[in-house]
Write a structure and sequence with these properties.
The complex is a heterotrimer of chains A (337), B (388) and C (397).
Chain A lengths: L1 H14 L8 H8 L2 E5 L8 E2 L5 E2 L1 H14 L5 E5 L5 H6 L5 E2 L7 H5 L3 E3 L4 E3 L1 E6 L13 E6 L4 H11 L4 E6 L2 H9 L5 E5 H8 L8 E3 L7 E3 L2 E3 L3 H20 L6 H4 L5 H7 L5 H5 L5 H9 L2 H8 L29
Parallel strand pairs in A: 1-4, 1-5, 9-10, 9-11
Antiparallel strand pairs in A: 2-3, 6-14, 7-13, 8-11, 8-12
Helix pairs in contact in A: 3-9, 3-13
Chain B lengths: L4 H9 L18 H9 L4 H27 L13 H4 L7 H13 L7 H19 L6 H21 L16 H27 L4 H16 L2 H15 L8 H26 L3 H9 L4 H31 L11 H10 L8 H35 L2
Helix pairs in contact in B: 5-8, 5-14, 6-7, 8-9, 8-11, 8-13, 8-14, 9-11, 10-11, 11-13, 12-13, 13-15, 14-15
Chain C lengths: L19 H34 L30 H34 L4 H15 L3 H15 L7 E3 L3 E4 L2 E4 L1 E4 L3 H29 L5 H19 L4 E4 L2 E2 L4 E2 L2 E3 L1 H28 L2 H9 L4 H31 L11 H13 L2 H30 L5
Helix pairs in contact in C: 2-3, 2-7, 2-10, 3-7, 4-7, 5-6, 7-9, 8-9, 9-11, 10-11
Chain lengths: 337, 388, 397
């Protein structure tokens, strides 16, 4: 029996692929699939549906990356990661890219050995309170109890915000957003705080969502973005430009539907983007039509946003800061040229 | 014939009943339902108080439970609106349509739809093996053991992970989930922990100091830390401890963690059994010239294991419940699939979580209770044979 | 055959590899080499892997400012001034608090249930069986979530708090008690209290000796109670009552002042005690059943009533069987308290392995420290229980 187990173990060990003995790009191509570390428990960003298919903003980023590198958005292996093991998983080479609603901070960028490829969602921490409390601003929350989810920068921001305004706060920290929001709903806390995107998702779970309001203050900058390991610049570039391609596609007006027509476009920006002019794909180490593959797979950034967290999703989050730079937001990508 | 007066007196005093009286039923208050009540529930004032208190406790819990699970429950619906009090304008209990829709996910996780028959086959094979092993009157139980410990593991491994050569598409373990993972983890833990536990228990009682030291260190270390940290070590730190090209599979890491953890506990259970064997058994075995392994295999272990079966099963129950902790390392076991499902905005409502947890509680209760019953039955059976 | 051997010949030489001593040494050396090799490999791999990944390592983070709040702190702690090291101690003390109290409650409840399982009252024994079978067979995590929600649902909102005379307030934010504020003369009371305990011990030793010699029993419990509590109160009054209370005050959102018992703490304590009590009940039942029936019968035939029989004859003997598995249950309870993270109680795992780990990202160091802590607690508990066990163990010839 033990021999069998040992054999089985060995078999699995040796089928497990090598991580980054060579360049990540080569490793991914040899393996034929992309290992993407994602959340798995956050609606709108990474969550398996009833069939076990992953959906979400971060998930679509990984699909786009797989489409660019391998030409097939389905060649992604999603590895569910918790807030605790996400960095180690990337560092140890278990995943090629970490797209798990991770806030870009200086210490993570440096001491944890990560390279953030950009921002795929501009978030900020906000508060939700009961209307009955008649609180209109977070500055009125002196002495309140606040339910907070552990693990991200949330606890620090909360503490900093109240300290900066000379206010007292009683925090009750939970491992998961669900327990935190349940405790808030049961009246354990006066306010619930998390990233604004989370506030909308969690509001659906409340007994009566209309009895609660989200306060106007956003107390922190939470630029969420995918990250890769230090030390492989080529892969870093590919990951970066996959994100930029999504954003540029929206700016150029390319959608999943019209992408084939756009191939015939005379617009030089579009021509460079779809690869009918220049060799920008090859410069990245990818195929000529890498950007077309991305748009075909998941659409442009706007489509990805709407489908997962925006107007056409149950979360219905307003795009706000996440509008394109020329439409009142701050989403901006360098040009392909 | 004449009798003396004395004789007569003796005869008259002597009284022996020749015909037995009909036995009388006990008084009305001591038999039937009333008697049973008096005997078992109302024998002393203290007992009466206890009876009333417990009766009240049931009256407090049971109706609420039934109301939530059955009477107020929602049985059909397409999304969250079906389970919201505001929309339905009534008290809403358990949200069953959520469970119905998510049930396949609870069972298979993300296992590809077209390949799910393989999981079903695995379940059936395992069920046959379990029945074969546990049902005392099953035919050819020796063959059953080979089936359970050799045929099923190999077939299951090929079946579940896939093998291109025979046309089974490989399925990455990341896609496994739900009851499948719970069963696989528990089963591997069960199958590995017993032999490993026996080895460790023997090692702990070994005369060789290095072996003993190693066993004691291992057992005490693993027993001294929470499983959560063992799993975390296995998950986060194992990849750091091996050359990076051999980074093991995530599920395998959790399996290693669980198996090692269960082995340490099993070792202590087995050690207790070994200690209960009288010294004479060891001496007798040595006196007839048996070597160490023969002595253990033929004389000591059969006796020791027999008396520890209930405790072994109890350890298995603990192991089964502990499988819920693999969610810490991002593996979608049954409880975790329930967790994930209740986050789904499609079904977000105040009762969704409670319903999910109720399902999980019932699931674990059924499995663990079955094991616990088996342990008790075995205990009773073995007790019977030991009683002369 | 052996009988044919002429006496006086040297013993048959066995090949050296069949010599048990040689074999034993060979096995041990092999084991040591294997283990040593594994450790060396793991360490060297870890070092290369860490270097390659540019991960910060070392324990420098210990002295960095924590910057986050903790809801229950037994020692002084503030987000801006305290370090990660301080947060660690806060978490550890919270763990010890809940584990310590949990052990006490679980033991009491476990003994009651365990004895109830053997009760002659049908309903009582069946209810106890039902309790054990249900509680044992549902994962603790689920039970904790259940209790937490039950606690929160049963307690009223802040505005409708239960006000209990004596300044006690109860609502879903917790139980608020008046906290004692000690005046300058209070140390006399402390001295009286300590003196009371010392006097009680002396009295206990004297009473025991007298009982052994004369058979007369002395009211140890009442005397000790009077000595410890009564003396303290007398001194308190004599010193002019140097003690005042801070009462909880309702603010706009919360109650401030006074002592606070968090609902998370209550739920965790409740859940852990109830869960562990089910296991302890089984241990106790097995222990009592292990005491031979003749002991009880002998006690009855001496004219003892059932209650003293249980207390003086059965339980002391059962304790020998009960203690070792009871120790394991205590350890399990301590380790299970790490599930506190699910319901927001700031124990070691929540504060240190949770928040601190997330903020520093130094998984290896943080998890290693956590494991070391639990290991220390476990080994210390085992040691204490082993000492107690050897004291009560049956002394055989």
């Amino acid at each position: 029996m033990k021999k069998i187990i040992a054999l089985a173990a060995l078999a699995i060990v040796f089928t497990a692929q090598s991580a980054s003995a060579q360049t990540t790009l080569k490793a991914v191509k040899d393996r034929g699939s992309l290992n993407c570390g994602s959340n798995g428990t956050l609606a709108g960003f990474g969550l398996p549906d009833a069939q076990g298919k992953w959906t979400g903003l971060d998930v679509d980023y990984c699909k786009a990356l797989a489409a660019a590198v391998l030409g097939d958005p389905n060649k992604v292996k999603f590895v569910p990661l918790s807030a605790k093991d996400r960095f180690t998983a990337l560092q140890s080479g278990e995943v090629d890219v970490l797209a798990r609603n991770t806030t870009w901070t200086s210490s993570r960028d440096t001491s944890l050995g990560l390279n953030f490829v950009g921002v795929d969602y501009y978030d900020g921490q906000g508060f939700m309170v009961r209307k009955a409390l008649k609180v209109n601003s977070a500055l009125e929350l002196n002495g309140a109890s606040v339910c907070v989810q552990q693990g991200t920068t949330t606890e620090l921001n909360l503490s900093d915000f109240f300290r900066a305004h000379n206010m007292q706060v009683k925090t009750v920290t939970f491992a998961t957003a669900n327990e935190a929001v349940k405790a808030y709903d049961a009246g354990r806390c006066d306010a619930y705080t998390t990233d604004a995107s989370g506030l909308y998702a969690e509001r659906l779970r409340l007994a009566n969502a209309d009895e609660h309001i989200v306060l106007p203050e956003v107390i922190s900058k939470e630029p969420l973005g995918p990250a890769v390991r230090h030390g492989d610049d080529q892969w870093f570039d590919i990951a970066k430009w996959t994100l930029f391609a999504l954003i540029n596609a929206e700016e150029l007006g390319m959608t999943q539907k019209n992408v084939d027509e756009m191939l015939k476009s005379a617009n030089p920006d579009v021509k460079r983007f779809v690869g009918t002019e220049g060799n920008y794909g090859e410069q990245l180490g990818l195929a000529k039509d890498w950007a077309v593959q991305i748009v075909k797979a998941v659409g442009n950034y706007g489509e990805v946003f709407d489908r997962n967290v925006g107007a056409t999703s149950p979360l219905k989050i307003d795009r706000g800061l996440n509008k394109l730079w020329n439409k009142g937001g701050i989403v901006y990508a360098p040009p392909v040229r | 014939m004449t009798m003396s007066e004395g004789d007569l007196a003796v005869m008259e005093l002597r009284f022996v009943r020749a015909a037995m009286l009909e036995s009388q039923p006990p008084p009305a208050g001591m038999r039937g339902a009333v008697g049973w009540l008096r005997e078992n529930l109302l024998s002393t004032p203290f007992n009466i108080t206890l009876t009333i208190l417990i009766g009240l406790l049931f009256a407090w819990i049971v109706p609420d439970l039934i109301r939530f699970l059955l009477i107020d429950a929602v049985w059909s619906g397409a999304d969250r609106d079906a389970c919201r009090e505001l929309v339905q304008n009534r008290t809403v209990g358990a949200c069953w349509p959520f469970v119905f829709e998510r049930w396949p996910y609870f069972v298979y996780g993300s296992y590809p739809l077209s390949e799910r028959w393989r999981v079903d086959v695995f379940f059936v094979m395992l069920a046959i093996g379990v029945v074969w092993m546990l049902w005392l009157h099953a035919p050819r139980r020796g063959l059953g053991a080979i089936y359970f410990f050799a045929v099923v593991p190999i077939t299951a491994f090929i079946l579940l992970t896939g093998w291109r050569a025979i046309g089974l598409e490989p399925v990455d373990t990341v896609l496994w989930g739900g009851i499948l993972v719970t069963i696989v983890v528990a089963w591997v833990g069960i199958v590995v922990s017993l032999p490993l536990g026996i080895l460790l228990a023997l090692g702990r009682r070994s005369p060789m100091p290095a072996v003993r030291l190693f066993s004691i260190t291992f057992i005490e270390f693993v027993r001294g830390v929470p499983l959560v940290t063992v799993l975390f070590m296995a998950s986060v730190m194992l990849p750091l401890f091996v050359p990076e090209q051999y980074s093991p599979d995530k599920l395998l890491r959790a399996l290693v963690g669980i198996a090692l953890f269960a082995s340490a506990y099993m070792a202590e259970v087995v050690r207790a059994g070994l200690q209960a064997i009288p010294k004479g058994q060891f001496e007798g075995a040595m006196a007839v010239g048996l070597g160490y392994s023969q002595m253990m295999r033929l004389i000591i272990l059969p006796q020791a294991l027999k008396i520890t079966i209930p405790n072994i099963v109890n350890t298995y129950i603990g192991l089964f419940k502990d499988t819920t902790l693999v969610f810490i390392v991002g593996i979608f076991d049954f409880l975790h699939t329930v967790e994930v499902s209740r986050i789904d905005p499609k079904w977000a409502s105040p009762v969704t979580s409670t319903t999910g947890y109720a399902v999980a509680a019932i699931f674990y209760l059924i499995f663990c209770y079955a094991m616990s019953r088996y342990a008790r039955a075995t205990e009773a059976r073995l007790g019977l044979s030991d009683r002369r | 055959m052996s009988t044919d051997l002429p006496a006086g010949l040297p013993p048959v030489r066995v090949a050296f590899y069949n010599d048990p001593k040689v074999r034993s040494i060979a096995y041990q050396v092999a084991l040591c080499v294997a283990v040593g090799f594994l450790i060396y490999e793991a360490a060297s791999n870890a070092i290369t892997n860490l270097e390659r990944a540019h991960i910060a390592s070392g324990f420098g983070f210990w002295h960095n400012t924590a910057g986050f709040d903790i809801s229950q702190t037994l020692i002084e702690y503030s987000a801006q001034a305290s370090t990660y090291g301080r947060a660690f101690w806060v978490g550890l003390l919270n763990t010890l608090l809940v584990a310590g109290l949990g052990v006490v409650f679980a033991t009491i409840l476990g003994f009651i249930i365990g004895i109830a399982r053997l009760s002659k009252n049908w309903l009582v024994s069946k209810a106890a069986t039902g309790y054990v079978e249900t509680i044992r067979n549902i994962p603790l995590l689920l039970q904790l979530l259940f209790w937490y929600n039950a606690v929160l649902k049963t307690l009223p909102e802040m505005r409708d708090s239960y006000k209990i005379p004596g300044g006690i307030v109860l609502n879903n934010r917790g139980l608020f008690l008046p906290n004692p504020i000690l005046g300058p003369g209070f140390y006399w009371v402390v001295i009286a209290f300590v003196a009371g305990i010392a006097a009680s011990i002396v009295f206990y030793i004297w009473a025991r000796k007298r009982q052994e010699q004369t058979g007369q029993q002395a009211p140890v419990f009442t005397t000790a109670f009077g000595l410890i509590i009564g003396l303290s109160i007398l001194v308190l009054i004599a010193a002019g009552f140097p003690l005042s209370f801070g009462f909880p005050q309702a603010g706009r959102f919360n109650i401030s002042g006074g002592m606070e018992v968090l609902p998370e703490f209550a739920a965790l304590l409740f859940g852990l005690s109830i869960y562990t009590a089910a296991f302890i009940a089984e241990v106790v039942r097995a222990g009592i059943l292990a005491v031979s029936r003749g002991q009880t019968e002998a006690a009855y035939s001496l004219g003892m009533r059932p209650q003293p029989t249980l207390r003086l004859i059965v339980v002391p003997q059962a304790m020998r069987v009960i203690i070792p598995p009871l120790t394991s249950q205590y350890l399990n309870l301590t380790k299970n308290s790490s599930l506190a993270v699910a319901i927001g109680y700031p124990d070691l795992v929540q504060v240190f392995t949770g928040t601190v780990l997330n903020q520093t990202g130094q998984a290896v160091e943080v998890v290693a420290i956590t494991m070391a802590v639990y290991l220390t607690i476990s080994l210390a508990t085992s040691l204490l229980m082993n000492i107690y066990n050897s004291r009560i163990a049956l002394v055989e010839r």
